[in-house]
Amino acid sequence: MPKGGRKGGHKGRARQYTSPEEIDAQLQAEKQKAREEEEQEEGGDGAAGDPKKEKKSLDSDESEDEDDDYQQKRKGVEGLIDIENPNRVAQTTKKVTQLDLDGPKELSRREREEIEKQKAKERYMKMHLAGKTEQAKADLARLAIIRKQREEAARKKEEERKAKDDATLSGKRMQSLSLNK
């Protein structure tokens, strides 16, 4: 035999895999043998004829499988010594049916900060549109100054155009008067 007590595998041979049905059958056979041994130890002739006991033993096997999920295996001397540590939290596995997906989900710090940042930005934009922020007040003042400058420029332009029209009209009158003479 090779090291470690393993059987030597041959390179050319095909591997043989056990099907799930065969594994289930083997497990059932082992459970059946264990039940028969327990019945023989208790006094086999009375237990073999009682169908209720067989039914209970089948149910107990199923419940033992469920109980194994909840019990933790203790390592080392943990089984011998009771530990009274209030900070120690026993890890329990939750089943899918026990998970609370509908409850409020706790956000991480980054997610919380991101949401707060978005809300603050929205509040600022509302205040800005209402004209209550300092930046909005400065913008409105600047717009008012620009509006006045444009009104003055438009007024000057209008006056210059009128003056030009008057000058051209008076110039034409002079020409027409001089031509008439």
TrEMBL record:
Q: Where is the composition biased (Acidic residues)?
A: 60-69
Which InterPro entries does this entry report, sorted A to Z?
Casein_kinase_sb_PP28 (IPR019380), HAP28 (IPR039876)
Q: Map out region (Disordered) in residue numbers.
A: 1-117, 151-181
Q: Which domain of life is it from?
A: Eukaryota
Q: Where is the Casein kinase substrate phosphoprotein PP28 domain?
A: 85-162
Q: Where is the composition biased (Basic residues)?
A: 1-14
List all Basic and acidic residues biased stretches: 50-59, 102-117, 151-167
User: What's the name of the protein?
Assistant: Casein kinase substrate phosphoprotein PP28 domain-containing protein
Origin species, per record, is: Sciurus vulgaris
